[in-house]
Design brief:
Blueprint: E1 2-3, E2 12-16, E3 21-23, E4 26-29, E5 32-35, E6 41-46, E7 49-54
InterPro entries: Conjugal_tfr_TrbG/VirB9/CagX, VirB9/CagX/TrbG_C, VirB9/CagX/TrbG_C_sf
Region (Disordered): 60-83
Pfam families: CagX
């Protein structure tokens, strides 16, 4: 989650692994930009300005909860239909 106060223009948000960039899915909630996921690095670009943010605790082996839900406290139950 990032905060951009005052209705200022948002930069383009990219996920980066140090070599490649890809646009990051996000949504805006008031002054906050909620990034959909946990990433190794972010690169924010607006015009010629670039800001890099690094997640030094990133662990791509960690995976998500075994339940398939966003939270380990939620029990996911599949009913009928395709899985």
């Amino acid at each position: 989650m990032l905060r951009f106060p005052g209705g200022r223009p948002l930069p383009a948000l990219f996920e980066t692994d140090g070599e490649r960039e890809r646009l990051v899915p996000y949504d805006v909630r008031g002054e906050f930009v909620v990034i959909h996921g946990v990433v190794r690095g972010l690169r924010l670009r607006r015009g010629d300005a670039v800001l890099c943010i690094f997640n030094e605790a990133f662990d791509d082996r960690a995976g998500g909860p075994a339940t398939g839900a966003a939270s380990p406290r939620v029990q996911r139950t599949r009913t009928g239909g395709a899985s």
